[in-house]
């Protein structure tokens, strides 16, 4: 039964079929932590290692319970005092774990900011302990692997147990480096100190892409100041080095001989708006076992006229590789030619084994002076969302095809699921993960669940399978992912091989009884009183924004296309919400009328009364609604004040970009909740 409740503070209309961001039933585990920054999954032992402030945790990824007592790796009092004397805040002078990666010998390489003096240690997974030199932890210099300031950007990736990192290289963060940090030890291959290579970079992500011929490559994604523009602007770059690059024999000794970079452009089709603030990049191999099918899903944010905007652009490995293989080099003198063999390549055309120590000097001198490509890699956004700031992205294959599901974390602690079939994008789910307003900074898919983290907690959320789509309408939008609505079971289920093939011209929402009529909703008549706050829902299944048509007056757009109205004589009348709609896999040319409300004023002497569509409600139900509404209002106010109080009292490290993925937030009412304070448990 559809019901409407009215309180003196908030008027909230709820229908049984509404789709909105709520606490998700699939959140079955939550771990509360402190300043979580990075984690590492070991599938062979089913262990999730979590790096936090001054500690390393080992968890069961299936339920987020402790596997071992935490390792404490704190700075000494003398180190803390020395850090403070350098002008740093005491809270920043802790040891924030920034890197967890497996090395060739099976040990885990652990690095931390260590009171603005980056250090690395070695962890033995068998005993879950840090290796020691006597009675002290065995430590090695972490410069270039972990930033001095825990808020500074960095990224890292391993290739066959060899570590590659990008980070600040000095205390003031005025020098930057991309380093082959291990194997052989004490002989790192690094970048030379030249603004042609890196100009005030902000490192975002890194990825290993294997090659069918064994010439694997490492990709780094970052933003930097581009000197080729006047005035100078910050642009997005992709850089590439060969995994087997050991530096040159004379020129570029112990320095990259294969470093190339190019600009990535994410711009609207009409070239009106560019997206230049790169937040995260996730590589996805669409055909498992075929590296050439790799695409990079890049997450951008920007502020347009004061409003937050997020966009996802997708770059194919094929396009990037083609530019590096055939594109023009910037700043080449007139009449000059590209030397042979072509600079920056990891293999020769004649199939001769590539060896950086035998690259001709003229090739090395050329790439030292011309690392930047003239052309750019351009694409248009796959997805643009206004009023939302996405902070993290992960992608998963569907049926080993070009179809994929994107999992995006927001700065408000939500997880959004979006299906991608070709260029068709559909919003599937918006799940509130956290109680506090805190950004999602880690998403890892594991056994049909998403391990979703923010700096204060880690949650395990069911995301795989059709059962996660709660309504017929949402299930219909997931038909491209192999889902269908079972009317008898009232559940979303996977299509069986025996299922009749659906007519491609058939509206997927027909099974919900809302096919042709879904754009002609009944007008809900609401009798309200002056001064009330009325929240009008508009259920949007598209990632594109909805548009409200309404009388003049005071209105506040809310998240998820809802509208809040402060009732007065000026804003009586018809309120209509129109959203983008999909039919036959394509967006309709005209937006769909999704919800319609008629607000009329009650006379002052009439008691609180609601008559949706002129249907009277029993008096007892109205009393219950008023009481429940008052309780809801108090609860909302309490949560709001707690969130606000928390934000003013805590300084999070959420703006850090870790080597892999970062961690999580608290959700109440679920099992397996383990509290951890700033002082890690012993």
Automatic annotation (TrEMBL):
The stretch of residues making up the signal peptide is 1-18
The taxonomy runs: Eukaryota, Metazoa, Chordata, Craniata, Vertebrata
Q: Which residues cross the membrane?
A: 619-641
- Where does the record place the Sema domain? 10-463
Q: Name one GO biological process term.
A: axon guidance
Q: Name one GO molecular function term.
A: semaphorin receptor binding
Q: Name any one Pfam family assigned in the record.
A: Sema4F_C
Source organism:
Esox lucius (Northern pike)
Q: What is this protein called?
A: Sema domain-containing protein
Positions with biased composition (Polar residues): 652-664
Q: Which SMART domains match?
A: Sema
Task: Identify one Gene Ontology CC term for this UniProt entry.
Answer: plasma membrane
Q: Where is this region: Disordered?
A: 652-671
Q: Does the keyword Metal-binding apply?
A: no
Q: Which SUPFAM superfamilies match?
A: Sema domain
> What domain of life?
Eukaryota
Please give the InterPro entries that the UniProt record associates with this protein.
Sema4F_C, Semap_dom, Semap_dom_sf, Semaphorin, WD40/YVTN_repeat-like_dom_sf
Which keywords, in A-to-Z order, does the entry hold? Glycoprotein, Membrane, Signal, Transmembrane, Transmembrane helix
């Amino acid at each position: 039964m559809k019901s409407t409740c009215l309180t003196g503070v908030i008027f909230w209309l709820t229908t049984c079929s509404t789709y909105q961001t709520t606490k998700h039933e699939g959140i079955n585990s939550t771990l509360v932590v402190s300043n979580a920054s990075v984690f590492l999954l070991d599938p062979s032992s089913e262990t999730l290692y979590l790096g936090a402030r001054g500690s390393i945790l080992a968890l069961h990824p299936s339920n987020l319970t402790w596997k071992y007592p935490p390792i404490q790796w704190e700075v000494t009092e003398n180190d803390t005092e020395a850090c403070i004397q350098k002008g740093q805040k005491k809270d920043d002078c802790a040891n924030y774990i920034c890197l967890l990666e497996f090395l060739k010998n099976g040990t885990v390489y652990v690095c931390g900011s260590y009171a603005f003096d980056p250090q690395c240690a070695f962890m033995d997974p068998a005993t879950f302990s840090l290796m020691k030199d006597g009675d002290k932890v065995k430590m090695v210099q972490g410069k270039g692997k972990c930033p001095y300031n825990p808020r500074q950007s960095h990224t890292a990736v391993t290739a066959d147990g060899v570590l590659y990192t990008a980070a600040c290289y000095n205390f003031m963060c005025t020098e930057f480096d991309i380093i082959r940090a291990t194997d052989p030890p004490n002989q790192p291959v690094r970048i030379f100190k030249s603004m042609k290579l890196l100009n005030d970079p902000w490192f975002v992500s890194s990825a290993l892409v294997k090659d069918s011929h064994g010439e694997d490559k490492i990709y780094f994604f970052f933003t930097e100041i581009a000197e080729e523009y006047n005035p100078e602007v910050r642009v997005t770059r992709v850089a590439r080095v060969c995994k087997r690059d050991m530096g040159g024999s004379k020129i570029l000794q112990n320095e990259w001989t294969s470093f190339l970079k190019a600009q990535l452009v994410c711009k609207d089709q009409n070239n009106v708006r560019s997206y230049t603030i790169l937040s995260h990049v996730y590589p996805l191999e669409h055909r498992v076992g075929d590296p050439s099918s790799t695409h990079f899903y890049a997450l951008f944010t920007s502020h347009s006229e004061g409003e937050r905007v997020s966009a996802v652009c997708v770059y194919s490995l094929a396009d990037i590789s083609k530019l590096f293989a055939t594109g023009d080099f910037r700043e080449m003198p007139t009449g000059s030619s590209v030397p042979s063999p072509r600079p920056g390549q990891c293999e020769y055309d004649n199939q001769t084994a590539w060896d950086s120590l035998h690259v001709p000097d003229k090739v090395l001198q050329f790439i030292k002076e011309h690392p930047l490509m003239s052309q750019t890699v351009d694409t248009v956004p796959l997805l643009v969302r206004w009023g939302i700031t996405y902070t993290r992205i992960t992608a998963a294959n569907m049926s080993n095809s070009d179809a994929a599901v994107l999992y995006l974390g927001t700065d408000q602690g939500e997880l959004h699921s979006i299906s991608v079939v070709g260029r068709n994008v559909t919003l599937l789910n918006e799940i509130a993960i956290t109680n506090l307003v805190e950004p999602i900074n880690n998403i890892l898919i594991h056994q049909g669940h998403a391990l979703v983290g923010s700096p204060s907690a880690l949650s395990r959320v069911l995301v795989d399978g059709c059962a996660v789509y709660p309504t017929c309408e949402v299930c219909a939008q997931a038909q491209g992912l192999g889902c269908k609505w079972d009317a008898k079971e009232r559940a979303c289920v996977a299509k069986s091989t025996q299922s009749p093939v659906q007519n491609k011209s058939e509206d997927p929402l027909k099974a919900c009884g809302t096919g042709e009529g879904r754009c002609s909703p009944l007008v809900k008549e609401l009798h309200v009183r002056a001064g009330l706050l009325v929240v009008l829902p508009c259920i949007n299944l598209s990632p594109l924004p909805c548009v409200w048509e309404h009388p003049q007056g005071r209105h506040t757009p809310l998240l998820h296309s809802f509208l809040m109205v402060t009732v007065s004589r000026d804003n009586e009348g018809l309120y209509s919400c129109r959203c983008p709609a999909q039919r036959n896999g394509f967006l309709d040319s005209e937006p769909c009328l999704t919800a319609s409300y008629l607000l009329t004023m009650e006379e002052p002497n009439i008691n609180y009364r609601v008559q949706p569509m002129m249907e009277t409600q029993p008096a007892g139900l109205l009393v219950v609604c008023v009481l429940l509404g008052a309780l809801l209002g108090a609860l909302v106010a309490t949560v709001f004040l707690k969130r606000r109080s928390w934000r003013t009292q805590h300084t999070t490290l959420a703006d850090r970009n870790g080597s892999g993925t970062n961690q999580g937030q608290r959700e109440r009412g679920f099992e397996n909740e383990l509290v951890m304070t700033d002082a890690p448990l012993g």
